[in-house]
Design brief:
Blueprint lengths: L1 H4 L10 H7 L12 H8 L8 H11 L13 H9 L1 H10 L3 H18 L31 H13 L2
Length: 161
């Protein structure tokens, strides 16, 4: 999902080399992992990245590290938690108030959203990914043709069609 949301200016998804380069702590710095490790993680070949690799992937995909961990699927709420100190403070204050305190905080948040002209239905748990863009074929070797396809192409070339 994160890969589909990270498109370049040309509308293409980034290559594993671009993602690997984006894992560096500083622009142009040493990447946290190689493009092969990125490829293995994206394809499920490797399933247990190190802490430095998780931090690098979070930098590359511009998401909270917690979102990359199993069981944490609220990208919107995790982003708010990481970006706003006051949100963390609000959660700490509600900690020992139990379900009643949480319900009051939720109701207050809904009232604030209403005052600002927003509804609670407009906040997705995970932001919608960008619509898929058809990618043109990448340059490289042409696909190997089957025997039938090669014969048809040879006939078309000989006949000039």
């Amino acid at each position: 999902m994160l890969l589909s949301r990270k498109r370049g200016a040309d509308g293409k998804t980034p290559s594993t080399r671009v993602i690997a380069a984006a894992t560096a702590e500083t622009p142009g710095g040493r990447p946290a992992m190689t493009h092969q490790v990125v490829n293995d993680l994206l394809n499920g070949i490797k399933a247990n990245p190190s802490i430095s690799q998780l931090l690098g992937l979070a930098r590359a995909f511009e998401c909270p590290v917690a979102y990359l961990l199993p069981g944490y699927n609220g990208l919107t709420s995790l982003s708010v938690y990481e970006e706003h100190q006051d949100a963390r403070e609000a959660l700490r204050l509600v900690h020992d108030l139990g379900q009643g305190g949480v319900a009051e905080l939720l109701e207050a948040a809904r009232e604030i959203r209403t005052r600002h002209g927003r509804t609670d239905r407009a906040v997705p748990e995970v932001p919608d990914p960008l619509p898929p863009v058809a990618e043109p074929p990448r340059p490289g070797r042409r696909r190997r043709l089957s025997f039938t396809e090669a014969a048809e192409r040879a006939v078309a070339d000989l006949e000039g069609t």
